Amino acid sequence: MDTIIIALILTTWFMLLRSRRTLALGLFLLSLLLSAGLFAFHTTSALPLSF
Amino acid sequence: MKPLTNGSWALTCAQIMLLGLCVCLAGAFVAQLTLGELPCPLCILQRMAMMLCALGPAMILFEARRGHNESAIYAQGFGLSVLAAILGMAISTRQVLLHILPGDPGYGSAVLGLHLYTWALLVFICVLLGAAVGLLLIGTKGWTPPPLRLLSTLLPWLLAGLIAANLLSVFIEEGLHWVLPDDPVYYQLLK
To answer: What is the DSSP track for B129-149?
Structure first.
């Protein structure tokens, strides 16, 4: 998952280079959401929680 | 693309932010290679947040070199940095709190007296402040020192190189697994 997110960030950089700003913003938000999701996963998996 | 000319002080602010973030990303990478310490999942997430923070100023520089100096582009660029800095602050604060108890040695070696996640928290606070100052300076007539003008040509490419290097490093460390182990001790792809 980490590799996929960094690959998305690199793709976002290429989209900014090609001046595809709308696509770049979408990829940026997707990367941000996936990073937040991965952070939530690592945080909750370390806590002694039971639902 | 056109050579970069003098823009507003907001452009100078974006250049300084991008320079600082590239130095931090390169420093983290050098620490990984020289100290031989593998980054943990939270460290990698903080690096991702730093890369996302750097994309905002990079967008401003790309557009400025094309001659687009609209306020909306600056606002979007700084807005991206703020969003990523908030996520980065949450991650680094979590890691600081994990090791805050007295007697806890912390994760990894300290650099200049602070662990890398504490430095990361300070960097994200600086990004928030930098974005706020940049937003305040939109529309002002500024002056970019010639060394910074030259650097601003190279910095977006340096950022791309750092993202690619991190991509390779994380791929080797993670291997073909979905997530990194909590306390990595070897590169899983080389095992």
So the answer is: HHHHHHHHTTT------HHHH
For A17, which of B41, B62, B84 is closest by C-beta distance? B62
**Closest-approach residue (CA) in chain A for B55:** A13
B84 touches chain A (CB under 8 A): yes
Give the Cβ contact number of residue B96 at 10 Å: 16
Count how many residues are written for chain B.
Answer: 191
Nearest CA among A28, A5, A33 for reference residue A16 = A28
CA distance B141 to A44: 48
Using one digit for the tens of pLDDT, what is the confidence trace for B5-62? Answer: 556 888 889 999 999 999 999 998 888 888 888 888 899 999 999 999 999 999 999 9
What does the alpha-carbon distance between residue B47 and residue B70 come to, in Å, rounded to a whole number?
Answer: 30
Residues 6+ apart with CB under 8 A from B144: B4, B6, B7, B11, B12, B15, B152
Q: Which spans in B66-145 are helix H? A: 71-98, 116-136
